[in-house]
Design goal:
about 375 residues, 8 helices
């Protein structure tokens, strides 16, 4: 949201520089003078200066926003609205391309996956990126704005440390390996003791980092998993052969090939330890009858196909079973969920949102001519 929109050698770019939260986007009214993606969302009507923002802690301001995008438009040869729309298009393309780089590098087809959108700004973009990637379902947790913090609170306490150790897999020094893991286990036991967990409660995953000669990056895999710490009986003469077999299996899973006639090398050992703790009960499923939600208000917004009167729904009005057909905008306390044309959102039993695509809308076909003019 804080990524700055600017002209670089005659081309419109978004980021990597960011306005951060101080001074933040222009619309925060805290002294920011450079247009950001949050300012673009305000220009597009996805965010609104007349609505409460961040739970009513402050209001967005339009002062200076249009002038900043007018300056970009002047250099590019079009209006402030078109400049804001193009910034929206570019940031979507940047994020989609980031997903493609990662999934393609791991041989994963995103069309087989579901997209999880979290954070304050993720749900404003998720469905249009899913559209671009061929993904048919997006999940937005009710706790989306605090998703990372919630994860920290409910995650099992864990300690994950490693030590460097270089050796061909067929020439492993068992005494050195034992000493390294023993040291890591001692450190982990101390950490958990300080947190009042006993050694018997700890699940220990002894791991090795390995690679083929000449590779830059190593892969990690479990060589042994045990309940409790200190049992290193698995470290014996055949560990090298076992490690090669497990590494080749892991390499095939990750990259789709192995080097059968090469001896991998160990680059390090790891010990990943954790203690299982109670997790909160989470409701799931769709047991409530489906009913179309009540529209709270409308405003002119551009969700990719031009400025139109768009239905606005307030999260405080929504309950499990409520359906929101796109195009629409759902205003949560600390996030904004955009239900783009061709998409539909339904609230599940836990209050989370499931967005599904029921009609193909070509994101590639959206452009300044069709999507940004008033």
């Amino acid at each position: 949201g804080g990524s700055i929109c600017h002209i670089n050698n005659g081309e419109l770019e978004v980021g990597p520089a960011s306005a951060g939260s101080e001074p933040g986007p222009i619309c925060y009214g805290r002294g920011g003078v450079k247009p950001t993606i949050t300012d673009a969302l305000l220009m597009l009507g996805i965010l609104c200066a007349e609505s409460e923002f961040a739970g009513g802690s402050f209001a967005l301001r339009r002062a200076g926003v249009e002038a900043a995008f007018s300056e970009i438009g002047k250099q590019m040869g079009y209006s402030a609205q078109e400049a804001a729309f193009d910034c929206w298009r570019i940031v979507n393309a940047n994020m989609s391309e980031g997903v493609r780089r990662i999934t393609a590098g791991k041989g994963v087809d995103p069309r087989d996956m579901c997209m999880l959108a979290y954070g304050g700004n993720g749900p404003a973009f998720a469905a249009i990126q899913a559209e671009d990637l061929g993904i048919d379902k997006v999940l937005v947790p009710k706790a989306s704005p605090a998703f990372s913090a919630l994860g920290t609170l409910v995650a099992d306490p864990s300690i994950d440390e490693e030590r460097s150790y270089l050796a061909p897999a067929d020439s492993i020094d068992l005494h050195r390996l034992t000493a390294l893991w023993d040291d890591l286990a001692t450190r982990a036991a101390k950490y958990f003791a300080d947190a009042r967990f006993s050694v018997d409660q700890v699940t220990a995953r002894y791991q090795m980092n390995m690679r083929y000669p000449g590779q830059n990056w190593a892969l990690s895999f479990d060589i042994n998993v045990s309940q409790g710490l200190g049992d290193l009986s698995f470290v014996h003469d055949s560990i090298g052969q076992k490690a090669v077999e497990m590494f080749n299996k892991r390499h095939m899973e990750e990259y789709g090939h192995i080097r059968e006639h090469e001896v991998p090398e160990v680059t390090g050992v790891r010990l990943a330890t954790s203690v299982k703790t109670a997790s909160p009960m989470v409701t799931c499923g769709f047991t409530a009858p489906s009913v179309t939600a009540r529209v709270a208000k409308t405003r002119r917004a551009n969700l990719g196909d031009g400025y139109k009167e768009t239905n606005i729904f307030l999260a405080t009005d929504l309950a499990p079973g409520h359906a929101v057909p796109g195009p629409a905008i759902i205003e949560e306390t600390f996030t904004t969920i955009v239900v783009y044309p061709g998409w539909r959102a339904v609230v599940d039993d836990a209050g989370d949102y499931e967005l599904t695509r029921h009609q193909r809308v070509s994101a590639a076909g959206i452009g300044p001519e069709s999507g940004s003019r008033d």
